[in-house]
């Protein structure tokens, strides 16, 4: 099996590419990790926490935002340092394994988040923060493996296929939870009309809480092909030498960054629009639960539809990436997201664009109200644009970064994606707490995408 052979610093990277099985196995990392974002941070656990664990949805949204911000700050501070060390040492898989373990441990501990038990909130949010740090760092080092897998002209398609595959994994995990595990407390049956497997109690929301352990087990099972079949970078330095060299390289890179105006503009743009996107995904389900009173089955069904839109968007975006270039894909995706957010703010429980409509009927048919269907359509637009935005962003970084410092730049990429990642959730939390309005909290996201679009215009591929 062929692996990359790195020439001395400053020389060109010469390499042969591994077989198709290695590439497919790498793609399965996205499949393995995506349920964390789908089940925990967006559609099942976060809305459950806000509506059933916390005292009320507004305070739940605030607390979740503060925990997300704390995890983002840790990721921001450590990502570039760890990326620089990984470049110096050469290996990626040990880092993925270590941080994957944090993901598994933190996710499994979330089972203990019992409804109405306020005493469990601090340890529960700590477990969520640990798992978030784990999945984000593991993703940094997984992304850094991409240049060794396919030629440069196929990076966009690889990135888009990875994101699309991840969305499919998220869809299947949602179907598993909604169809067989999570039941309505009123009926005692799942979306498919079954009694929950394993005797899960709908009254104590065990079907919602099981998403934590399920996420951990899912990651362990589906990340194995990557560890077994995808070649790693060869080892280059011992850990102590890598720490010293990596720290030196990082200082050199940071000192040079102001001279690399396009790279600096891109990293700054990524910092802003990623903050907006992560906040949008993190609070979309919570916002829907508070606005329409959706339960787990309704939010999960919404998530399945959005994930299908996201998979199609990421797959199409990967093709457009190789054809039009990642910068155009990023700009188009941000424009769609901006329009969708503005429209969502004009959709209320009983209104659409200032037009009064009939509100949802309690225990009515799924998405029967006009406002619910409008929110669903706009959510699909967000899903279809979010996948290409993230996939094209990592493609653009690979095209702009020095090949011998790719993990270091992915560390900076994660830094800019996380250094202010606490700002979005924090602003949402503060504005929501002050105004006691979820709509007002979500409105701050408009600023992030407007600023991101402005900065992207200064980037030259």
Structural classification: mainly alpha
Overall radius of gyration: 21 Å
Arrangement of strands in the largest sheet = 1-2-3
The amount of helix comes to: over 70%
Low-confidence sequence ranges: 1-13
Number of distinct beta strands = 3
Mean pLDDT score: 81
Overall 3D shape: globular
What's this entry about, in short?
It is built from 17 helices and three strands. The protein has 461 residues and is mostly helical.
Record the SSE blueprint.
Layout: H1 20-43, H2 45-53, H3 57-89, H4 93-109, H5 121-143, H6 155-181, H7 206-209, H8 211-229, H9 239-256, H10 261-292, H11 296-324, H12 326-345, E1 347-348, E2 351-352, E3 355-356, H13 370-400, H14 406-418, H15 423-435, H16 438-443, H17 445-456
Helix pairs in contact: 1-6, 1-8, 1-10, 1-11, 2-3, 2-10, 3-5, 3-9, 3-10, 3-14, 3-15, 4-5, 4-8, 5-14, 6-11, 6-13, 10-13, 10-14, 10-15, 10-17, 11-12, 11-13, 12-13, 12-17
